[in-house]
Amino acid sequence: MENSSKRPIYLLPYYLWIALFVITPIALVAYFSFFDLSGNLTLENYRNFFTSVYLRMTLSSFWYAFLITLFSILIAYPTAYLLTKTKHKQLWLLLIIIPSWINLLLKTYAFIGIFGLYGPANQFLEFLGIGQQQILFTDFSFVFVSVYIFIPFMILPIFNSLDKLNPALIDASRDLGASSWTTFRRIIFPLAIGGVKSGVQAVFIPALSLFMITRLIAGNKVITLGTAIEQQFLVTQNWGMGSTIAVFLILFMFIIMMLTGQRDKGGTTNVKTK
């Protein structure tokens, strides 16, 4: 009884942190979204968001975030699976995670040099006889660099889920005559789906709000919600419209988190056996 009565005191720093750095910023963003350039209360910002310009930008943001997430899963899942089979898996996992410690701006500028007209990528194309190509400032370069940056955040949760699988279940599946594909489809993938969902959250949500990569790698040819917020706040100085876009971005993030959230009941996971 004594410990339970003191528990709220221990949680006070947590509640203060949430109130100051989560609830308050969101409330301020929502507050400024109701003001126009002249400081007058208005709903015009919300009406403008549902115009064709901003709806196309929103669809474009979701499309690029989907591509980045899809390619990340296609690369991360087999990579994580192979890591669980290696002898020094923790060492290999560390080597994959280390690049994520490097500053994002440094990695972005490195790819500007790699994909430039006289960079290693074009030199390799010339060696193959293809000749120089405009790789930088394209959709390909944007998606490629984004996948490179986000892929450690996809590999890690998938690896943790696969590494915790009970090997006896896989052995039992094979003893019962199931093929490798059936074992993966009915046993491995359902039991490791939690790692995929966590990876989607870690990749898809930040990919929606990218702005630095779109500016430096895509040359502003790719416009996302993050790019639009940056332009509204720093270029046009329209804080109201920038806040309105941020409100919808936060709303999209909550929806994605709800869709990819864990729904385990009773600590068990259902596996199809038929």
Automatic annotation (TrEMBL):
Q: Where in the cell is it found?
A: Cell membrane
Biological processes, Gene Ontology terms: transmembrane transport
Asked whether the UniProt record includes Transcription among its keywords, one would answer: no
Q: Where is the ABC transmembrane type-1 domain?
A: 58-260
Under Pfam families, the record lists: BPD_transp_1 (PF00528)
Listed A to Z, the keywords are: Cell membrane, Membrane, Transmembrane, Transmembrane helix, Transport
Q: Which domain of life is it from?
A: Bacteria
Q: Which InterPro entries does the protein's record reference? A: MetI-like, MetI-like_sf
Kindly give the membrane topology term recorded for this protein: Multi-pass membrane protein
Sequence intervals crossing the membrane: 12-34, 62-84, 91-115, 135-159, 238-259
Question: What Gene Ontology cellular component terms go with this record?
Answer: plasma membrane
Main location per UniProt?
membrane
**Which family does the entry's similarity section mention?**
Belongs to the binding-protein-dependent transport system permease family. CysTW subfamily.
Q: What is this protein called?
A: ABC transporter permease
Q: Which organism is it from?
A: Planococcus salinus
